[in-house]
Amino acid sequence: xxxxxxxxxxxxxxxxxxxxxxxxxxSAWWPGMAAPVHLTPGTDGVGARYERxxxxxxxxxxxxxxxxxxxxxxxxxxxxxEGDLVGHGSYVLTEAGGETHVxxxxxxxxxxxxMNLLAPVLKxxxxxxxxxxxxxxxxxxxxxxxxxxxxxA
Length: 153
Hints:
Blueprint lengths: L2 E10 L3 H8 L13 E2 L10 E7 L5 E12 L3 E8 L1 E12 L2 E12 L2 H36 L5
Antiparallel strand pairs: 1-7, 2-3, 3-4, 4-5, 5-6, 6-7
């Protein structure tokens, strides 16, 4: 399996509670992130499971299930992943200077035969794709929060 390690930081001009709430409904504002399916209805926080489908700039979907392993609103969520991406992820929020910083950490391996076969040559392209998804997410979140605050698009 090809291993990937990503750390992405977003700076968002909104209070931490608003950013946390928005992160709980990612399909409302994050292009390429399909509506997650809650696999454990009635369970929120640790133990909750969600199926996700992600599509970036490249013509393939990544399907995976996350299981929440740490849940500390509005500061941190961590999860394990299985499916097309196996590993661990988290996001940590801090508030400073009138904005919220969100640090995403993603330590995963791909399980798809073709992705792993092509990884020695295309790993930089796969990383570029991931980074594009994250830029779309940051832009979408900022727009969503402005709209929620009545500031328009």
